[in-house]
Amino acid sequence: MSENHLSELRFDELPLDDRIREGIRDAGFEFCTPIQADTLPIALKDKDVAGQAQTGTGKTAAFLIATYQRLLKSDAPTDGPRNPRAFMLAPTRELAVQIANDAEVIGKHTGLVVGLAFGGTDYEKQRNQIAAGIDILIGTPGRIIDYFKPGVFKLDQVEVAILDEADRMFDLGFIKDIRYLLRRLPDPDKRLNMLFSATLSQRVMELAYEHMNEPELIRIEPDKVTADRVRQAVFFPSNEDKMPLLIGLVREMGEGRIMIFVNMKREAERVQDYLEANGIHAKAISGDVPQNKRLRMLMDFQSGDLAVLIGTDVASRGLHVPDVQYEINYDLPQDPEDYVHRIGRTARAGASGDAISLGCETYVMTLPDIEEYIGHKIPVANYNHDDLPEIIRPKPRRRKPSQQRGKPGGGRSGGGRSGGQGRRRGPPKR
Question: Which domains occur in the chain, in start order?
């Protein structure tokens, strides 16, 4: 077993339909991740699972494989309209789209039809697709209710119910909608139920026991997968050197997906403007970006048409972006747990990656807490101030008079090489 395999269980050892095996091979999967190895043997026996696992651990593939297996081994009703036989709830539009994309790959050879329901776009298109008949319905609670109440589809044929990122459902205020939908499904003992959450808190477990059939609890250590497989380093730039250092690092990285994290939305926009002004194609993702544009950004980033994606912890949480080679903390996070979530973007499903942090004057005070949380010192990397690139300042953005200036996320605006404050710190670069 190579170092990238997180368990010794192969997918071909599981009792799966050959059509699913083909989809798994198409996805490039061979070995199960820990959450897959622990949950699939249970779910494939039609037993309910409540799993503690974070984004990027392979839980999506786990519940998709279990869902397809359950649907393929049972006969679909032949009388009346074709209603969903599997029902998957996600807290955000982006996550729903990502689940659907993964479902199309894994289920490519099954003949089962996937439908999407999420707010913000394509109301009639989504409605018509669902009304035409689907096997698997994936979506956000509000939009699904919008279609359910007028009778676009029924829930009485559901054999599989999936609830993803249950803790975020509570945080976003969806719990009433979720309970409304779950109470209209067949009884829990007549369906396969799977719930996943970053934490199996008391409120999540109350939901599980109310709407599931004696679920088996599976817990995967939340931080182990992400932190152990990432090559980490921290620079200590002055605020004036911070932007030139970032641009220099991005240029050195060359090809490969790069995610940059900042602490404030306004700073994400500023970083985007500087990168674009200096010939680096970058986009900032935030809640203010229209849904169509957000989805386009993600598709471009995944395809390689967009080199750099910038975001805050709030805007980027829950996004599943495969094969991120580099993660840069332009701002060190103020919450140590956010650091682990960020660097985990480069360590999905057993992959490795590089995480680079800029411990600037504004945010360096959070570094000791981060190192205490992850249990080790982050290796120090050095730079030579005189080797930093000369950079172009972007033109100021035009803003509406009503927009208030936010606090800068990285101290002074810092665009050029000035001040001579970028002295080497720490041991020589290794």
Answer: 11-219 (3.40.50.300), 224-387 (3.40.50.300)
